[in-house]
């Protein structure tokens, strides 16, 4: 599998990345064996970039990912995790985290937002313990939606210091919104940003961010390529999910127009969805959520099959025929609901 370099760093990521929110029991339980098999299958398909976060299953995703990767030489894979949520003892557990954040795990811990420099360092230390690693390659500030000033003033400078000390290889931020990421790229010393759901075959509203990243040599990791599921099947069904809720009729119609264009040229909608983000030179990797070994193999097959130039031309025509225009009022930031902040393509 091809790799691409992140900005001016020495970190290289595979064009397909493993989104580990699913193996943190996103929405439904996954047993240890199934989670390990998903990581193993991705490895067998050539995936060497794995993304996780403390948020995913209250640390379960990090523990499972670290255990699965521990069977491989450390220099052969790249891991990213996130900071901004400290895991602390829950003073009032209810038994499950499912209703609070969408993960089917016991809620003996709770998330404490902390975007301070000290909080960033403590979060990373705890992540390393859960992962069983002595270092991670990429650290993202996770969803600093209401803490953007602090993230720019404290979180990212703290990570940059760790980068300069050689503790981490690349730093940045990961969000659903492209607008605050644009400000981070312009005002902070970021190497990479993770943009979830706003640079996809169906939703290209994040293009201004990608253009600025290209100008500044900041890489983009495109997460959630299936837009919550609407692009995950060859033909979007009635009630298909888009941005965590049933797709509006106009969005469903556009997705079906894209699916028809794929079928006309011998491709499939999910195949094009995985391949599309990499067409922009700023994009280094597409991170897709992988719950099972079958999903890992399928995602790799989508990327490996590619899309013909004739199909891309037809898809461009279908895309411009309807849907939000670049810079239009329809391009409002979309925030994930409390249940299911799957930042990994996998919110797909």
List segments where confidence is low: pLDDT < 50 over at least 5 consecutive residues. 324-348
DSSP strand content = 15-25%
- The number of helical runs is 11
Measured distance between first and last alpha carbons: 22 Å
CA-atom Rg in angstroms: 19 Å
What is the average of the pLDDT values? Answer: 92
Strand order of the largest sheet: 3-4-5-8-9-10-11-14
Per DSSP E runs of 2 or more residues, the count of β-strands stands at 14
CATH architecture label: Alpha-Beta Barrel
Helix content percent band = 25-40%
Can you tag this structure with a few keywords?
TIM Barrel; globular; 348 residues
Describe the 3D structure.
The protein is an alpha/beta fold and 348 residues long. It has one domain: NADP-dependent oxidoreductase domain (TIM Barrel). It is 36% helix and 18% strand. The chain contains 11 helices and 14 strands. The chain has helices at 32-44, 60-69, 98-101, 117-131, 148-164, 179-187, 207-216, 249-264, 269-275, 293-305, 309-321; strands at residues 3-5, 12-14, 16-19, 49-51, 78-83, 85-89, 109-113, 138-142, 170-175, 192-196, 219-223, 241-242, 245-246, 283-289. An 8-stranded parallel barrel has the order 3-4-5-8-9-10-11-14, surrounded by 5 helices. The protein has a two-stranded antiparallel sheet with strand order 1-2. The chain has a two-stranded antiparallel ribbon with strand order 6-7. It starts with a strand and ends in a 27-residue tail after the last helix.
Provide the fold topology.
Elements: E1 3-5, E2 12-14, E3 16-19, H1 32-44, E4 49-51, H2 60-69, E5 78-83, E6 85-89, H3 98-101, E7 109-113, H4 117-131, E8 138-142, H5 148-164, E9 170-175, H6 179-187, E10 192-196, H7 207-216, E11 219-223, E12 241-242, E13 245-246, H8 249-264, H9 269-275, E14 283-289, H10 293-305, H11 309-321
Parallel strand pairs: 3-4, 3-14, 4-5, 5-8, 8-9, 9-10, 10-11, 11-14
Antiparallel strand pairs: 1-2, 6-7, 12-13
């Amino acid at each position: 599998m091809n790799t691409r370099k992140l900005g001016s760093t020495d970190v290289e990521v595979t064009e397909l990345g493993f989104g580990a929110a699913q193996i943190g029991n996103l929405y439904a339980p996954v047993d240890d064996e199934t989670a390990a098999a998903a990581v193993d299958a991705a490895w067998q398909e050539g995936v060497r970039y794995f993304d996780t976060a403390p948020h995913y299953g209250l640390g379960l995703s990090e523990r499972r990912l670290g255990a699965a990767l521990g069977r491989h030489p450390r220099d052969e894979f790249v891991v990213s995790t996130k900071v901004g949520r400290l895991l602390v003892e829950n003073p009032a557990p209810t038994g499950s985290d499912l209703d609070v954040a969408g993960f089917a795990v016991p809620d003996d811990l709770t998330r404490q937002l902390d975007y301070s420099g000290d909080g960033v360092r403590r979060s990373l230390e705890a992540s390393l313990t859960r992962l069983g690693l002595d270092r991670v390659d990429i650290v993202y500030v996770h969803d600093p939606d209401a803490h953007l000033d602090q993230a720019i003033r404290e979180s990212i400078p703290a990570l940059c210091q760790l980068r300069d000390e050689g503790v981490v290889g690349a730093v940045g931020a990961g969000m659903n919104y492209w607008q605050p990421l644009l400000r981070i790229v312009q005002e902070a010393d970021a190497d990479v940003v993770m943009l979830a759901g706003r640079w996809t075959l169906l939703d290209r509203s994040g293009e201004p961010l990608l253009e600025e990243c290209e100008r500044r040599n900041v890489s983009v990791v495109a997460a959630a390529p299936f837009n919550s599921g609407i692009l995950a099947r060859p033909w979007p069904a009635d009630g298909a999910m888009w941005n965590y809720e049933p797709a509006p009729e106009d969005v469903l119609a556009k997705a079906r127009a894209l699916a028809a264009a794929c079928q006309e040229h011998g491709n499939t909608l999910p195949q094009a969805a995985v391949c599309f983000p990499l067409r922009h030179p700023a994009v280094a990797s597409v991170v897709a959520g992988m719950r099972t070994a079958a999903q890992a193999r399928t995602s790799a097959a989508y990327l490996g099959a590619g899309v013909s130039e004739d199909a891309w031309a037809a898809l461009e025509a279908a895309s411009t025929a309807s849907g939000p225009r670049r810079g239009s009022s329809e391009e409002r930031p979309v925030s994930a609901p409390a249940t299911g902040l799957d930042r990994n393509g996998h919110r797909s």
